[in-house]
Write a structure and sequence with these properties.
Blueprint: H1 4-12, E1 20-24, H2 29-38, E2 42-48, E3 65-69, H3 79-84, E4 87-89, H4 93-99, H5 101-106, H6 117-121, H7 124-133, E5 151-155, E6 165-167, H8 170-176, E7 183-187, E8 192-201, E9 208-209, E10 214-227, H9 237-242, E11 249-256, H10 264-282, E12 287-295, E13 301-307, H11 333-346
Parallel strand pairs: 1-2, 1-4, 2-3
Antiparallel strand pairs: 5-6, 5-7, 8-10, 8-12, 9-10, 10-11, 12-13
Amino acid sequence: MISKERIMEIIGNYDLDNLSIATVCSHSSLQIFDGARKEGLKTIGICVKKPPKFYDAFPKAKPDEFIVVDSYKDIPKIADELVSRNAVIVPHGSFVEYLGYEEFVDLPVPTFGNRSVLEWESDREQERVWLEGAGIHMPRKVKAEDINGPVMVKYHGAKGGKGFFIAKTFEEFKRHVNPDEKYTIQEFITGTRYYFHFFYSPLREEGYQLSEGILEMLSMDRRVESNADEIFRLGSPRELEAAGIHPTYVVTGNVPLVARESLLPLIFELGEKVVEQSLKLFGGMIGPFCLETVVTDDLEIKVFEISARIVAGTNIYLNGSPYSDLVDSNLSTGRRIAQEIKLARSENQLDKILS
């Protein structure tokens, strides 16, 4: 992984009055570019082959310039070009997945957030050590040979639900699993899915205070998954099984949610525990993160995954959510990132939010 010292050397040669926000043209890029523009920062879109035409339909979110590569794997080749434009990379799930972990952590371009989080987030075993060490309730881990009821099988990394499946027996598991990929097996929890969109600031002091900085909860969503969210119109689970039709969990969109207000203390407690443990383990995760949870009918919240960067579910709230509007008007997660970068610049504390 590129050292923090090297990143700060690069920043030392930047024209800080002309910082640019750069990201891959996918996932949550419209929101990131829109938020940066609202905060007066320049924007750079990284794209493959040619600039996506759909940006022409959204002029407020169209980046000021595009940098074209032949493949996402070629992004390291444009590092010097990005540095020459005083770029700060804002990573999202597609950015990291397309480029790859090893290439991303070595990329010699200042990046918003702490790259060390990837070691803990991308490996589901490490992720469990982190979350359970924070005192978080997670679905029980199950060994394949011990499956005797519904379990969720997930592959490692950010895959948008691709390939995930439910198995009820060891034999069913063996029929569907890809043995060439790393996977984890969790008990299936019955309840309602909630995805909580947090923001951790090591710089601000007013708000929900932690041992260092503050925690914000900007919004929440639930994912629309194909074909799991529509499949049961075709029949009962037993009938679908008999017909050889199985649910799949590829994320195709997101819908907005609010939680009953009595759950907010518990929701913030979860975010607080996760951040405090991250500070102990690897110096803290900076900026946006998402706790992916199931709320049971006993109002217990079980966390089955964490995404330690901006998630696509925040795209619903381009002009604010019922929660972020109580922090600042028209506040998206993309805009909140731009605000944090500007604050760090003004207080000469970019070393606290960049890696």
